[in-house]
Amino acid sequence: MPKLLTDQQVISITQAWVKSFIIGYSICPFAKREWDRGSIYYIVNRTMDIEYFLEQLIQECERLDSDDGIETTLLIYPEALSSFDDYLDYLDITERLLIEQDYEGIYQLASFHPDYCFDGSAPDDSANYTNRSPYPMLHLIREESIERAVAAYPHPENIPERNIELTRRLGRAKMQALLAACYQAGR
Question: pLDDT digits over 15-50, tens only?
């Protein structure tokens, strides 16, 4: 049986992914600023309890409400939501919860999963790697910050297309290697 990684190792693996892939390949051109500022908060959730996940999501919204030093939070689920379909069901619930809790328009969720597959896309399409991560996770983002960043960025509407072209040009083998390297870098 593989050794269970500590929370810090899970965070280190996630940080390696953010630094080497998200920032290194400018998948999100706004991430480097927050990395440099140290304003990304990481939560590792090891339970298998969806109710607890939802409570924790709202707690993180409340943390962002009260702490301007945190720009964004990554909620990481290293032992849960391994099925992409289960993850999508959970994502749907979380989006409805944000609306119910009056956080719509305040916070936005971005979704990442090791088996991420865009609707209508083949599972082996390299473009899926734009949202593939070491672990299932949610990215909780301040909408106000997104609006400011997008307003200052030339042609933000081209970011997804650029990322798809980049990941397809790099190819599936390179994308798999980049993701695998994060596990080594984080241990």
Answer: 999 999 999 999 999 999 999 999 999 999 999 999
Q: How far apart are CA 56 and CA 4, in angstroms?
A: 22
The per-residue b/e assignment along 89-107, b for 16 or more CB within 10 angstroms, e otherwise, is ebbeebeebbeeeebeeeb
- Tell me the whole-structure pTM to 2 decimals: 0.94
CA distance 57 to 48: 14
Per-residue model confidence as pLDDT tens digits over 109-149: 999 999 999 999 999 999 999 999 999 999 999 999 999 98
Q: What angle do CA 112, 18, 178 make, to 5 degrees?
A: 85
CA distance 160 to 130: 8
